Amino acid sequence: CYGYQNSIFSLVDPVVRQATKLPYKTLVEQRIFKPLEMNTASIGYQAFIDNPNHAEPHARRKGQWKTVAVQPNYYRAAPAAGVNASILDMGKWLQAQLGGKPEILSPGLLGNLSEPRVKTRREMYRKQWKTMLSSAHYGLGWRVYQLGEERLIYHGGWVSGFRADVAFSPQHNIGIVVLLNAESSGISELTTRFWQMTLAP
Fold first, then answer.
1. Which of 122, 139, 160, 201 is in the most buried spot, having the most CB atoms within 10 Å?
2. Beta-lactamase-related domain location, by residue (predicted)?
3. Is the pLDDT of residue 1 over 70?
4. What is the topology classification, in CATH, of domain 6-198?
5. Could you give the angle at the alpha carbon of 17 between the alpha carbons of 77 and 84, nearest 5°?
6. 79-115 per-position pLDDT tens digit
7. Where are the domains of the chain?
């Protein structure tokens, strides 16, 4: 049985505190942001608002795109939706996920995170993905998609006014990060089209 729930990720904070004696925010800053030189990445609502170069969220209202307020409630569960990062920051993080920083994210760790663990049959019926997938699983924080003989590691994010997609192929050493400050379904079309073109024979 599989069900996805963002709030469960909030349990990462007390577990991290118990294991390392450090708050989640401090641990991420020390072990991920700083060594990967994700120089504008931060955690928390106030850090986002205080950055003069932050994106403004947008949503459709009466057929038009309108700026909407940033929702601070998402930040109450920082491990689920509390990281703020630019496309440059995310590019560095993606390179590390592809094995480019083994001294920070070891091959063993990366393999463990992306190991298929639980079947997620519902993924097989997602509009943009259903014609591409031969199987779908959840790993440790990653969706693991099988496209024939190709394995794709993927996750999307969606909060009020923002969407994000991250997907990569360790086999081909290539990935994509898409960040939108709008609740547009176009992100799924863009991501799947990228992989159709990239993995085409």
1. 139
2. 2-185
3. no
4. Beta-lactamase (3.40.710)
5. 40
6. 888 899 999 999 999 999 999 999 999 999 999 999 9
7. 6-198
The DSSP symbol for 148 reads: T
Instruction: Flag whether the pTM goes above 0.85.
Output: yes
Structural contact between residues 114 and 145, judged by C-beta atoms closer than 8 angstroms: no
For the chain, what is the mean pLDDT?
93
Any residues with CB less than 8 A from the CB of 122 and at least 6 apart, and which? 2
Of 142, 6, 145, 164, the C-alpha closest to 74 is 6
Q: b vs e for 64-82, b when ≥16 Cβ sit within 10 Å of the residue's Cβ?
A: eeeebebeeebbebbbbbb
Structure tokens at 160: 């009020």
CA–CA separation, 71 and 80 (whole Å): 14
- Asked whether residue 3 carries a pLDDT value surpassing 90, the answer given is no
In this structure, the number of other CB atoms found within 10 A of the CB of residue 168 comes to 21
Structure tokens at 136: 């779908």
72 has pLDDT over 70: yes
Tokens at 16, concatenated: 């991290």
In this prediction, residue 101 carries a pLDDT of: 98
User: What span, in angstroms and rounded, lies between the C-alpha atoms of 201 and 195?
Assistant: 12
Q: Are strands 64-67 and 58-61 parallel, antiparallel or unpaired?
A: antiparallel
